């Protein structure tokens, strides 16, 4: 029977939202996200608690607007203030314009800096910092979805045209810390991969520097879509390093063949044996060139460059969570959803570092949700003091209690 009003299905939200308050998320939302006019009367009223409710729902595993109702079940409304219905939260998302999404992006960057200051989420950023930029095509199937258009993507190694939306994201990571999202921008499916990349790289550089990195220790990595003059110029102007793949074309082939060709930086080419080669007497080689201005030895520079693939773990993490769907028909609502998912991603990562457990420091979002957030508890009020009673012999009790202590310790 579903008749228990004091049962809490996601007790891990308590320390998670306490960490959000401790790092000033509500203050940042109050300061930056403001609505001067509304399409629906009172649709954008009280945006801060509503946006926090969306983030809380995403932390529980919600991947659509309807799924946000999970935060209203059982004793959740008694445990938290400002819990809103999913329809109310959907109305708020549809009030967003492009300007409001830029305000929300500012919250994402500033909150990441606050998390870095109060947790070990970017431990080692003062020694070396990696910024990775990448994009993908998220398929959509409704013709009425704003911004949906056909773009190029690869499926099983083959380039195909697919209807969708194209998010562009920038991550910040270190030698020991998992990648954190410093910026997300949703674009039409037909948008070129490098569209808007220069400004996003500049914003990510400023965020990393504010978080404690020095420009000389920052390395920006990207694939061949981002080997553009505007992007490289923005990196060099900031004093950072770059390592970017170069697309194969006749000019690059000539440069590979002529080692006297001089450029600003180094053109490093990795040669690998074609997997389809059958005759060992006449091997076929594949060449993978990339352009860099780092001072590392060639072999180490190649290893460092290939670790750009770490950003793929962020894509899979988000697709397995809030990015499973683009929940609204409005483009700006979906953009706001993507940015809120990035804030939730960073918050979960930070919570994992507070458990004092190496596994959760680099764990996927699905693991963090299962082990730290989606824990049942019974809410009691002895002498009007709320108390959570969690299951006995819970296998992750030590990590959860460590997170609780850290979240409520000022």
TrEMBL record:
InterPro entries: Tnp_DDE_dom
Superkingdom, natural source: Bacteria
Pfam families: DDE_Tnp_1_4
Domain Transposase DDE: 2-265
Protein name as catalogued: Transposase
